[in-house]
Design a protein that fits this description.
285 residues, NAD+ binding, 6-phosphogluconate dehydrogenase C-terminal fold, 6-PGluconate_DH-like_C_sf, oxidoreductase, alpha/beta, Rossmann fold, prephenate dehydrogenase (NADP+) activity, 2 domains, eight-stranded mixed sheet, membrane, 11 helices
Length: 285
């Protein structure tokens, strides 16, 4: 797959922000066709009218039977349900991937009923916006984003390479492969914990006290991801609960360390924590 195009029929399940953005980015690569399925008929109409997809369906079995590449851009539970309900409608040899933020439990469930002629290669584009829906989809949302592939032993090498090439072709800068288990462990810290912190800040009673005049960049940055899809993130938290609870407890210990340093007026410890955090942050950017 390259910028000259590729002879694939693509089928996207879920035409929200991510599914719509996939369709727009993949359109530049000149595939044979891009079809989509969604429960929201208005999203389908908009996607067709804007030329994001060629055809939109609320059922879509016939288009699915012709699809070489299927992208599951919806919630974990809906991914499993869709695949179970349509397991006999996939084209033999089809490559299936997803956009989900958790992997191990999802892939284990899917592989438990997936026939040998189908290959599910886990994929996680680290991209998004606070807003949701097809109206805010963008063909450049993946530009310079990270992309994580979570292969298993049952995946064919050529299909893993296909997903990697696709990720790079839509604009992702760094593409890595990691086990589903390790993915979920790391994501619980780098993605899920920041959402916990942002939501906790906005859940404070102080927010009700007209604090807008007292907020600056630090508060806005820290709470940006508190604008959250409650259904999706509840699923993600529950499906990765062991890892997330571990990270919450570790974070609580860090908070406690700072609290104790303040209470005991331990300037050396507090400065050490600050300097260590500063050095680590500078190393990242």
């Amino acid at each position: 797959m390259d910028e000259c195009g590729f002879d694939f029929n693509i089928f996207i399940v879920g035409l929200g922000l991510i599914g719509g953005s996939y369709a727009m980015a993949l359109r530049k690569l000149n595939p044979l066709s891009i079809c989509g399925i969604d429960v929201d008929e208005n999203s389908l109409k908009e996607a067709v009218n804007r030329g994001i997809i060629d055809q939109g369906f609320t059922d879509g079995k016939e288009a699915l039977r012709k699809a070489d590449l299927v992208i599951m851009a919806t919630y974990p539970e809906e991914i499993v349900n869709f695949m179970k309900n349509n397991i006999g409608n996939f084209k033999k040899g089809a490559v299936i991937t997803d956009t989900c933020g958790i992997k191990e439990g999802l892939i284990d469930i899917i592989n438990s009923f997936l026939p040998d002629e189908l290959d599910f290669v886990g994929g996680h584009p680290m991209a998004g916006k606070e807003s949701k829906g097809i109206k805010v989809a963008s063909d450049d949302i993946f530009n310079n984003a990270n992309y994580i592939i979570t292969p298993t032993e049952r995946n064919r090498k050529e299909n893993i390479m296909l997903i990697e090439k696709m990720a790079r072709a839509i604009g992702c800068k760094k593409v890595i492969s990691i086990s589903p288990k390790e993915h979920d462990k790391i994501i619980s810290f780098t993605s899920q914990l920041p959402h916990v912190i942002a939501v906790s800040l906005m859940d404070s009673d102080l927010v009700e006290n007209n604090i807008e005049t007292f907020t600056g960049g630090s508060f806005k940055d820290a709470t940006r991801v508190a604008v959250i899809n409650s259904t999706l993130w509840s699923e993600l938290f529950f499906l990765n609960s062991d890892n997330l609870i571990t990270e919450i407890e570790r974070f609580q210990k860090s908070i406690e360390k700072i609290k104790n340093a303040i209470m005991s007026e331990d300037e050396n410890t507090l400065k050490h924590i600050f300097k260590n955090a500063t050095a680590r942050r500078k190393k990242m950017v």
